[in-house]
Amino acid sequence: MEELKKIAIASDHAGFYLKEKLIRFLTAERYEVKDLGCYSPDAVDYPDYGHLLAKVVSDGEYPLGISICGTGNGISMVVNKHQKIRGALCWNEEISRLARAHNDANICSLPGRFINESEACLIVKTFLTTPFEGGRHIKRIAKISMKTE
Ligand code: RB5
């Protein structure tokens, strides 16, 4: 039996319904999905969920994560406050592919109010299946972290 692949996901209320759809998609694709909330469409604050997601990815508990808010920007700003996180705002398949291939992104941030379910599934599938290219991108990624922190 093929081993389940692991993925963590979190959203605010603006990403809640897309998160639920992605969980169904990912489960069908044989991923073990860790849902860090939110758990209803009631209004919440995206930093509360972005930090939870960034922590499980930073700790190595989950290799990759998906974060969703209305624009994708707020929750992306939150996850990128964590040293080990490279969060990428992905709104189409090619951006998603390059986020993995060139940036070795470990969190894919989605704009829940601006993409539909099929676009989101394609973006996420691409993110999860594209390997980092390495090579010339390694030294660039090494320069992202602020040395003073
Ligand atoms: C919530 O209304 C909205 O501001 C939030 O989901 C996100 O888009 C913030 O960046």
> What percent of the residues sit in helical stretches (DSSP H or I)?
40-55%
CATH architecture: 3-Layer(aba) Sandwich
In angstroms, what is the radius of gyration? 14 Å
Count of individual helical segments: 6
Quaternary status? single chain
The secondary-structure class comes to alpha/beta
Strand order of the largest sheet: 2-1-3-5-4
Report on the biggest sheet: 5 strands, parallel
* Count of distinct structural domains: 1
Bound molecules: D-ribose
Question: Can you tell me the CATH superfamily?
Answer: Sugar-phosphate isomerase, RpiB/LacA/LacB
Q: State mean pLDDT (0 to 100 scale).
A: 96
State the name of the first-level CATH class: Alpha Beta
SSE order, as H and E?
A: EHEHEHEHEHH
User: What fold name stands as the CATH topology?
Assistant: Ribose 5-phosphate Isomerase B, Chain: A
Unreliable stretches: none
Cα distance spanning the termini: 44 Å
Strand content: 15-25%
How would you characterize this protein structure?
With 149 residues, the protein is an alpha/beta fold. The chain has one domain (5-142): 3-Layer(aba) Sandwich (Ribose 5-phosphate Isomerase B, Chain: A), CATH 3.40.1400. It contains six helices and five strands. The chain has a five-stranded parallel beta sheet with strand order 2-1-3-5-4, with helices on both faces. α1 links the parallel β1 (5-11) and β2 (31-35). α1 crosses α5 (117-129), α2 packs across α3 and α4 runs parallel beside α5 (117-129). D-ribose (RB5) is lined by residues 12, 14, 46, 69-71, 73-74.
